[in-house]
């Protein structure tokens, strides 16, 4: 049985007494008799990293609550034989609709098909693929995308419908954006071995067995079958990338709806990359990739090869699986808060190309790592991104204490003083919290709150602090700004 919920929502499982029927229970919950409920008594929260959980488990005597955090993915619920599927949906209202999405077949480990209802009018699905496309388009932000997703290749795979596949589109977009960077820079050339039946000359090493078979037995006395090295683009790494590109192309062509409104941009990347591999062979042995040595002049190859191996492993190296309606996926989790953080960082870099050296991402000191530090003279601020809708109407004191603590770090002050000699140590540093805002695609933008940020230049961000809507009045020099996320 699969449990379908959206980000930051809960699902409740209760124990019922023996002999009690399901019709006796009026609550819209999952009720299990004692023997089935016992499986959940050993269920533990799933850690994503040292700070947070993919999902949390809160247990009481006769009930077990499974709470999703801001992570999207598919996983097994311990040893219960059941699965959890968290969708990238944020609820801007009070609807509890997604708390009760269940598959009627309790013996099945499949995830249920997406349930559609008009009751979920305030629930918007974040277009995380569109966010990923933008993040991966810039090398500075693409370099930090490696840890956005975690995949458990050693766990038992979970069967789902192709239309519910979240992992493959994510990996394909990551791969294609890395490939686009490689093509733009130019394919790497290297020495590789090739075999050829040469006429009236010998080159490299004569392959005696093949020479006898292809030439001596056929009375071709002037031909010699040789193996020799060539310097060019048709080497192992480029061949592997060509093979992954063929898998990605097949998957995109057979499942365009999974990429929703991003399909046009993705097909444009395919059209851009394909000509570069026109004369590259796709004949490759993946096991040889283990012996490849990294070249510092072609750093893009390392990540593209790593993700490419994931894609081929995802399809068991069989291209026909790109067309199947039922697929098996390894458990995985996508870190949406980190993706949101990189999205804002991307917008900052894009809007401030001349001030990029004043934008410090993941500025670290003494075990602390703040999201973004702006050190431009006259515009100094500490920025913390929070993937929480609560900031639309309120604020969270713990988050404010956190960002305020960052602004008091001596290393932060010293960095600002190094760029601005007039900075006084006793001056209060501006603190800014960036939060997401959701709206429907056809919604009138003129009705949006004036606190929403659409111009990401440092000067414009600073100017927004004068707006009372952006001030957290209980604190000195602490502000908040919302940014729109693309939604489906």
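Sequence proposed for the structure above (488 residues):
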């Amino acid at each position: 049985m699969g449990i379908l919920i959206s980000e930051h929502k809960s699902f409740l499982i209760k124990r019922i007494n023996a002999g009690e029927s399901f019709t006796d229970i009026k609550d819209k919950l999952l009720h299990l008799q004692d023997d089935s409920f016992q499986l959940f008594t050993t269920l533990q929260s799933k850690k994503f990293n040292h700070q947070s959980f993919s999902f949390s488990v809160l247990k009481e005597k006769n009930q077990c609550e499974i709470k999703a955090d801001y992570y999207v993915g598919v996983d097994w619920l311990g040893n219960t034989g059941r699965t959890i599927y968290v969708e990238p949906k944020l609820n801007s209202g009070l609807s509890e609709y997604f708390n009760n999405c269940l598959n009627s077949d309790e013996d099945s480990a499949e995830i249920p098909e997406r349930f559609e209802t008009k009751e979920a009018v305030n629930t918007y699905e974040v277009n995380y693929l569109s966010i990923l496309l933008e993040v991966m388009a810039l090398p500075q932000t693409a370099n930090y995308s490696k840890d956005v997703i975690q995949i458990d290749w050693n766990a038992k795979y979970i069967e789902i419908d192709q239309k519910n596949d979240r992992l493959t589109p994510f990996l394909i977009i990551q791969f294609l954006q890395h490939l686009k960077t490689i093509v733009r820079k130019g394919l790497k050339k290297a020495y590789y071995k090739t075999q050829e039946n040469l006429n009236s000359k010998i080159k490299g090493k004569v392959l005696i067995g093949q020479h006898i078979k292809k030439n001596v037995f056929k009375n071709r006395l002037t031909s010699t079958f040789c193996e020799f090295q060539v310097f060019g683009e048709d080497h192992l790494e480029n061949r592997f990338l060509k093979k992954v590109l063929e898998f990605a192309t097949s998957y995109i062509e057979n499942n365009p709806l999974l990429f929703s409104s991003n399909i046009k941009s993705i097909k444009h990347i395919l059209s851009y990359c394909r000509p570069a591999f026109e004369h590259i062979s796709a004949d490759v042995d993946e096991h040889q990739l283990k012996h490849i040595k990294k070249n510092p002049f072609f750093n893009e190859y390392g990540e593209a090869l790593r993700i490419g191996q994931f894609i081929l492993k995802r399809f068991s190296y069989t291209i026909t699986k790109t067309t199947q309606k039922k697929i098996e996926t390894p458990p995985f989790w996508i870190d949406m808060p980190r993706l949101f953080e990189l999205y804002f960082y991307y917008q900052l870099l894009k809007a401030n190309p001349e001030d990029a050296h004043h934008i410090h991402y993941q500025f670290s000191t003494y075990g602390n790592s703040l999201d973004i530090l702006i050190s431009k003279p006259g515009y100094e601020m500490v920025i913390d991104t929070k993937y929480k809708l609560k900031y639309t109407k309120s604020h969270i004191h713990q988050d404010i204490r956190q960002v305020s603590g960052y602004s008091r770090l001596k290393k932060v002050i010293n960095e600002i003083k190094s760029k601005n000699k007039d900075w006084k140590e006793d001056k209060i540093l501006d603190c800014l919290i960036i939060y997401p805002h959701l709206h429907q695609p056809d919604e009138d933008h003129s009705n949006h709150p004036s606190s929403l940020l659409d111009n990401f230049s440092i000067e414009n961000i600073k100017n927004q602090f004068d707006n009372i809507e952006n001030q957290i009045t209980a604190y000195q020099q602490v502000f908040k700004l919302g940014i729109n996320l693309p939604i489906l």
